[in-house]
Give the backbone structure.
Amino acid sequence: MELKVGSRLAHFEILGLLGAGGMGEVYRAMDTKLRREVAIKVLPPQFAEQSDRLARFEQEAVLLASLNHPHVAAIYGVEHVDGVPFLELELVEGPTLADRLISGPIPVPEAIKIAGQIADALEAAHEKGIVHRDLKPANVKLTPDGKVKVLDFGLAKAFGPEQAARLSGATRVGAAAMTEPRGHTQAGLVMGTASYMSPEQAEGKPVDKRTDVWSFGVLLYEMLTGKRLFDGKSDAHVLVHVMEQEPDWTKLPPLPNGVQALMERCLQKDPAQRLRDIGDVRIQLQASLSHPIQARGGAAPKNATARRLMWPAFGVVGAVIAAVVVWVLMRPHPAPVVAADAVRFDIERSGASRRRGSRYPRTAGGSRSPPRDPTEARSSGYARSRRRRPGRSKARARSTD
């Protein structure tokens, strides 16, 4: 049912169309009673044909309305006018995560912050027994003030599998059918958006909150890489990839320590091996924001850069030290100089010592020999000892007398 701008639905004035899909059209509207803008989601006319489904939908809406959380778009009420059922929803301004991803991957710190808020919303829902079942970029809004709002909690379950399949147009894959929205999990019927479905959903098996953990991991991978983790030419190809293909972790950018390991645990194909509590995911993501981003080699980029810059400095210092050592070892050493006083001391010893010793001064090697150079002889004690010889002879003569 398409509503024109300016028309009224009960006390809501239609201001414009926000979007449309298999689950109905969403309009911006003015609540003329409370004077506030809201979002009106008009459900397909076929939905009103089965009263039991409408009653179940209203019960589900009551449960969702109790989910009061800052990261969950609120449901204000369920109305039906002239056989047209619609939801009154919180109007969330800003683009969807799908719109944001058109420009490419999201920087790591921003992506982790967005993922943390999504995990916070899922945790609040799971505590009330509500499983989203259709978590995808189009169901996540990014407000202008940086907050995240998750849309359409549990609406697919409220529709029920057969109704959702008929409204959205199921694609049969063998014995299973896949649709964009999901309802109750039944064998042989797959409800959900192909690229974000868990393997157990793809096989039509019963699901629990762990299916949201899988979808969260797929969503985080897409935010970090800018590419869908599972894609293909058709829904059938995508389903095969979901059930058989492993993620290519090499496409991830450098991440804080532990984030990739966390994603690997979220994307375990066996639900028994998958993380059970999205609250644990939220805690680890918040803690990772204080960790340095790790390069592929495992070292923080800043430290690696510092080390790369330090190695040339170490090389220069080492070369200088080596050059100094070589210079000290290789430089010529002068011969030791014998002091003249030491020679005079040897010459001027007592007479008894002179008679026992040689009349020649000691050389540097300890032996006694006459100087070969006359110049050396004149400057040595040897010359002085020669000049004293006459005096010594007179002294001997007196001692003889």
